[in-house]
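haha ok so turns out i had the wrong file open the whole time. this is the CORRECT one, sorry everyone. sequence first:
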Amino acid sequence: MRANTDWFVQAKWGVFFHYLAEIHTPAEILETEEGVAHWNRLIDDFDVAGLAEQLAELRAGYFFITLGQNSGYFLSPNATYDEIVGRRPSRLSQRDLVADLSEALGKVGVPLMVYLPSAAPCRDPLAVRELRCTPPWDAALIGFPPESIFPEDGARTDERMTEFQQNWEAIVREWSVRWGKGVRGWWIDGCYQADRMYREPDPPNFQSFAAAMKAGNPDSLVAFNPGVRVPVISHTEFEDYTAGEIDAALPVETQPTWETGHLGRYEAAAQYHILRYLGSTWGVGQPRFPDELMVAYTRYINQWEGVVTWDVPTQPGGLIPEPFFRQLRGLST
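then structure:
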């Protein structure tokens, strides 16, 4: 029942933005109401037309952007989220940047895909509590840092965090229905405790989570990230492509032995895909690879019908910085 990934294979490679308040907002105002105003100014000033022009010039096959992450600042409004969390003013932007990006990128033929964590924003205690993302087990197992603030033990949920999963699926479903075919895929981070949370015959599970993402576009592609895995794996039969987070590695085989052969289009029936940063880490830094290495590695994966996504830093106004634009240009020649 996986979605058709032919367009993804033909795209060959794409660009990923970690466009986050944590990167573009001064740390000292993140926890204040001024942080909300600053975030909305950033989102209002995001140059969607300029970015679309850059991606078209690069001939990028698709574009990913983060909806939000640990701080609880998101770049699209969501009434379901605000009703559950109850924060006033909301940390969700007033402008629907995803909708505007979808329109601008659609004009130049670049598909839009989005990133979302699988858990509540871990540095926002109010959201963690109200969304019921309070497992009875160590929350560090889903990526929560040790210094995160958790509610008292009396607020802990069941082993599967059933209520949280239902809340999160409802939030995702609202976004998916609103954006419809304007969003072509989802990349879900932090699915590290799949056996506890998602590998169940009854919902909430991988299947119901995928259904929420596909509510507005049944053909949308879905991936669940198991964490850094080399070789790359498929995490579940309910994903269409591999999340493929490879961090510091550049794998050239599906298995680390000589006997198993070379890369192929599929890993356990999911489209083979990898995600890697070109800067010093996700969303920041200067180019770390020679241009020739980045281009040759992308083409190597492509020749086996694999797909490569390159994460690059962003300017506050939403454009690709010149050093990375120049490097990515090598893929369009």
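The longest helix spans residues 162-179.
again sry for the mixup
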